[in-house]
Amino acid sequence: MIEPDGRRRRTLESRERIIDAMVALTLAGRVSVSAEQVAERAEVGLRTVFRHFKDMDSLYREISRIMEARIADVVAQPFSAPDWQGRLVELIGRRARVFETITPIKRAEAAHRHRSRFLEADSARMNHRLREILAGVVPTEIREDAARFEALDLLLSFESWDRLRREQGLSAARAKAVLETAVRGVIA
Question: Which pLDDT value is given to residue 3?
Fold first, then answer.
């Protein structure tokens, strides 16, 4: 007879392998990862994938949790610049690091968001949080100037970063420099 603790341990290990497989496949640039690919990478049966995750949203939730943990230190780090303009430049650097980390995940999210309530809500939550952080960095005069604040929010969005990196083919350093230049124009 199999011990309950052994069975529980194997169940948890299988679940972690499935999550790790999904994350690894997505970070490798696969926008649409199938349950079959996850099962193969995790070295589990297809039925095991569906036994642990009744739908893709439940798997997306786990990926979101993992990615948030990976970027938490960058997000939580206090700003060191003495003035808001310096903090805004720091914010650009932080977003560059975070966006570089989450780019494959965000690209996959964009491809599947139209059919996933969780991904839609998760994206809205992230965008809201990014706006809150930006609002905490800039002075009241910019927050209250809707055109300037919205321009900054657009420039510092993942979508702007992704366009600079993918469509315009810029390196991360060059993309960061372009954003700094554009932001200086908005706050001048």
Answer: 59
